[in-house]
Design a protein that fits this description.
It is built from no helices and ten strands. The chain is mainly β. It has a single domain, classed as Roll (Archaeosine Trna-guanine Transglycosylase, Chain: A, domain 4). The protein has a seven-stranded mixed β-sheet, with no helix packed on it. The chain has a three-stranded antiparallel β-sheet with strand order 7-8-10, with no helix packed on it. The radius of gyration is 13 Å and the shape is globular.
Length: 111
């Protein structure tokens, strides 16, 4: 995963800053995390990488409903999107870290 000033790796000493995670990342290097509870615009949220239990912190740029995606990286239009360590789609517009990711800014890689 490329590191961006808005995505911050966290360690055990930082855990008191935010009490619980609000999204999961399936694979280190994925471009998106999946909300495990609703995320409000402007909220600073913690995500957990499922493959190594490391954490990242992101400030959400929009409301992200439960089960929907949040961007962990900045991507230009027409770039591949990774989840589960594989390409799941292509961006349909530029993304910034913390953007709500859904059908308005991603299309499937299947067809």
């Amino acid at each position: 995963m490329s590191h961006n000033s808005q995505v911050t790796e966290r360690n055990a000493q930082d855990s008191k800053a935010v009490s619980t995670h609000k999204f999961l990342i399936h694979h280190n290097g994925d471009h998106v995390g999946v909300a495990t509870s609703p995320i409000a615009a402007g909220e600073k949220v913690v995500g957990i990488f499922m493959d190594d239990n490391s954490e990242v912190e992101v400030t959400s740029k929009g409301d992200v409903p439960l089960g929907h995606k949040i961007s962990l990286v900045s991507l230009d239009k027409d770039e591949p999107v990774l989840k589960y360590g594989v390409q799941i789609g292509v961006t349909t517009e530029k993304w910034e870290v913390g953007d709500y990711v859904h059908t308005h800014n991603i299309k499937t890689a299947r067809w």
